[in-house]
């Protein structure tokens, strides 16, 4: 059993970034233990319908502002192919269950009411937190299909319209979809190449060990011992845990001695967002593809039921691929059923919008981030009104064990650049 200066648990963007910073500062005997057979974490490419699609993170959010997003700088440096995504027209492409698009005026009015209601709710929550009393005025909950659809768009995709988000304030409001055959993950491989030995795109450095599922971290005054599922034992002076907040909330990883109560309570209080992009391949395109029509919305009586759609023609012309995004409870529901059942549900929705004569999908791809024991969700989701001490406790070290990841970023939690900039 050899001893390293630092063991890093997890080879997502925060783990790779932490290792790179350590090596650049002279700590070369680092060891990265990754549970899967690849680096990238929640950045993952898979070929589908002859094109690469991003199962997890798919956009570079926050571009075009006064400050430069470091992930955008990486993308520019390594010539990552991207396409500009404009969400603003999505609210005007809302279909009802009969296939009719809601008139622009009705959609705009409904959207303004939803924004005003969300702002009122936020102010109400702020008043409660500051005074300890229940605010007198509370906004009504969305009830109609279009109200539910807009509520889903607003809170699951466009929260910046309600509450200023540092990503857009600091880096700009533009977003770019990654559409590169190497995948978003190539940025991590390019970063790794700068401090790990590689050959023909493969990492051959023994400081990165794949398929090592860490189950226990034991620390003492003298150092830290890490034990993996296959019986391997590693020793280090310090450990950096870059596992997701979902994994920290699960029982995959145990600590000896147990983490203090203030630490475990903070970890459990952080919400986990589940974000599922379902890909459907068709024999031909039957949906509108003109300017301002990349995204379209389905208004259903159930909030978030196959609501948010996107075609991939801008990224990959002729691919004939649609993507529908589900979140949270809908994501968990779909993960628990067969892909065939999900295909039936999606086709029923599409035939509501575009008619019963549209062709049936030839293939489907359903990521399962919630049931993946090495991820347990997509990203952290701190409440709109939360005590800053919560985040401080989540990121605080415990003895020789340090924590990093997008969930430890004070300004950019939930984003790729949050994981990249996170400091252990």
From TrEMBL:
Cofactor(s), names only, from the UniProt record: FAD
All copies of domain Amine oxidase, residue ranges: 13-104, 168-421
Binding-site positions, FAD: 14, 34-35, 214
MF-aspect GO terms: flavin adenine dinucleotide binding; polyamine oxidase activity
InterPro entries tied to this protein: Amino_oxidase, FAD/NAD-bd_sf, Flavin_amine_oxidase, Flavin_monoamine_oxidase
Pathway: Amine and polyamine degradation; spermine degradation
Keywords of this entry: FAD, Flavoprotein, Oxidoreductase
Biological process according to GO: polyamine catabolic process
Family: Belongs to the flavin monoamine oxidase family.
PANTHER family per the UniProt record, alphabetical: FLAVIN MONOAMINE OXIDASE, POLYAMINE OXIDASE 1
Identification of the protein by name: Amine oxidase domain-containing protein
Source organism per UniProt: Arabidopsis arenosa
């Amino acid at each position: 059993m050899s001893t390293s200066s630092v063991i890093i648990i997890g080879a997502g963007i925060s783990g790779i970034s932490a290792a790179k910073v350590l090596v650049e500062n002279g700590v070369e005997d680092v060891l990265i233990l990754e549970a899967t057979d690849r680096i990238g974490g929640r950045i993952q490419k898979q070929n589908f319908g002859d094109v690469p699609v991003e199962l997890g993170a798919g956009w570079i959010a926050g571009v075009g502002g006064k400050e430069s997003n470091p992930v955008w700088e990486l993308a520019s440096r390594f010539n990552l192919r991207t396409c500009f995504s404009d969400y603003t027209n999505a609210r005007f492409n809302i279909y009802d269950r009969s296939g009719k698009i809601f008139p622009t005026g009705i959609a705009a009015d409904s959207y303004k009411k939803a924004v005003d209601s969300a702002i009122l709710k936020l102010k109400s929550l702020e008043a409660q937190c500051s005074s300890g009393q229940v605010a007198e005025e509370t906004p009504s909950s969305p009830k109609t299909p279009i109200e539910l659809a807009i509520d889903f768009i607003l809170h699951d995709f466009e929260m910046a319209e309600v509450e200023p988000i540092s990503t857009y304030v600091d880096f700009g409001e533009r977003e770019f979809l990654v559409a590169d055959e190497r995948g978003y993950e190539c940025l991590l491989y390019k970063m790794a190449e700068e401090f790990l030995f590689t050959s023909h795109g493969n990492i051959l450095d023994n400081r990165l060990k794949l398929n090592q599922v860490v189950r226990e971290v034991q620390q003492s005054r003298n150092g830290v011992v890490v034990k993996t599922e296959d019986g391997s034992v590693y020793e280090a002076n310090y450990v950096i845990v870059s596992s997701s907040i979902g994994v920290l909330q699960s029982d995959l990883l145990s600590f000896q001695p147990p983490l203090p109560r203030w630490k475990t309570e903070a970890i459990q209080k952080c919400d986990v967002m589940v974000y599922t992009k379902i890909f459907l391949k068709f024999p031909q395109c039957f949906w509108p593809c003109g300017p301002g029509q990349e995204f379209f919305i389905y208004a259903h009586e159930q909030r978030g039921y196959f609501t948010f759609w996107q075609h991939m023609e801008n990224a990959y012309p002729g691919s004939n691929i649609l993507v529908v995004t589900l979140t949270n409870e809908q994501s968990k529901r779909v993960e628990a059923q067969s892909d065939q059942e999900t295909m039936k549900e999606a086709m029923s929705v599409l035939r509501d919008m575009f008619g019963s004569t549209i062709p049936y999908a030839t293939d489907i791809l359903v990521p399962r981030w919630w049931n993946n024991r090495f991820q347990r969700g997509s990203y952290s989701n701190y409440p709109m009104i939360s005590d800053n001490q919560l985040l401080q406790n989540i990121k605080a070290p415990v003895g020789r064990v340090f924590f990093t990841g997008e969930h430890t970023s004070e300004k950019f939690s939930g984003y790729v650049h949050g994981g990249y900039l996170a400091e252990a």
